[in-house]
Amino acid sequence: MEVAKIENISRIYKIGQVETQALRNVNLTIESGEFTALVGPSGSGKTTLLQLIGCLDQPTSGKLTINGKDVSQLDRNQRADMRRGTIGFIFQFFALIPTLTAYENIEMPLLLNGKSPAERQQRVNQLLKAIDLEDHSHHRPDQLSGGQQQRVAIARALVTQPALILADEPTANLDTPNGKLVMETMVRLNQETGVTFVFATHDPRVIQYARRIVTLRDGMIVSDEAGEGQLVESAAPVLA
Length: 240
What we know:
CATH topology: Rossmann fold
InterPro entries: AAA+_ATPase (IPR003593), ABC_transporter-like_ATP-bd (IPR003439), ABC_transporter-like_CS (IPR017871), ABC_transpr_LolD-like (IPR015854), MacB-like_ATP-bd (IPR017911), P-loop_NTPase (IPR027417)
Number of helices: 7
Radius of gyration: 18 Å
Distance between the termini: 21 Å
Order of helices and strands: EEEHEEHEHHHEHEHEE
CATH class: Alpha Beta
Transmembrane segments: 86-103
Low-confidence stretches: none
Helix content: 25-40%
Number of domains: 1
Number of strands: 10
GO molecular function: ATP binding; ATP hydrolysis activity; transmembrane transporter activity
Organism: Ornatilinea apprima
Largest sheet: 6 strands, mixed
Keywords: ATP-binding, Membrane, Nucleotide-binding, Transmembrane, Transmembrane helix, Transport
C-alpha cells in the first residue's frame, strides 16, 4: 500500500529576485512499512522533500498524495488535520515542551485529538514501556539525557498511531551510544508496529539501519537502492 507518492515535484524558493530550486521534478513512492533514509550532502534537497511529505510546505509544481489523498486539494486546516492524524514527526532538537514531564509530552497529541483519559493513559504507558522509560515518566526534559529526550520524541510521534513517521537528522545531537539506542528503538518499533519511517540523514551510522536508501544531489534523486537494513532483536511486542 502506498503511504506517500511524489509525482514530478519541484520546489522553488524566491527571495527578492533570487530563485533557488531546492527540488527538481522528483518522483518517489513510499510503501507501507518501509524504513527509508533520504541521504545527500547539505543543500541536496532531502530536508525540503521531508517537509513536503510532512505537509509542512507545499510544492511549486507537481503532485503529492498521502494515504490516497491529494494534498494539493486540501486547505490549510485539512493539511493540519492530516499532520495531526496521519503523520508523526521526530525533530533533530527533540522539540519537547520543557515544562511538561515525559508522560505529558507523549500525551499532548492525544489531548489535542480529544482522546479520553483512559485511552490516553493506556497508550502513553504502552509507549513508555516500549522506549524503556517507565521509571522516567515524571521527569521533565531537563532531567533526561539527550538520548532519553529523543526516545520521548519518538513515543510522542507514535502515540496517535500515524501511518508515517518523518525524522530529520534524528541522531545529529547525540553521541554514538545514544544514537545507536535511538536508531535501534526506531527499528524495533517499525518491526513491531509496521509504521513507515522516512528519515533524512548524512550519518553513516544511521544509514546502515535503512532498508532503502534514496540519495539526492542538487535537488534530484540520483540513486534509489536497497540498504543493509540492520535489524534489531525484539522482546515480545508491547504495543497493540
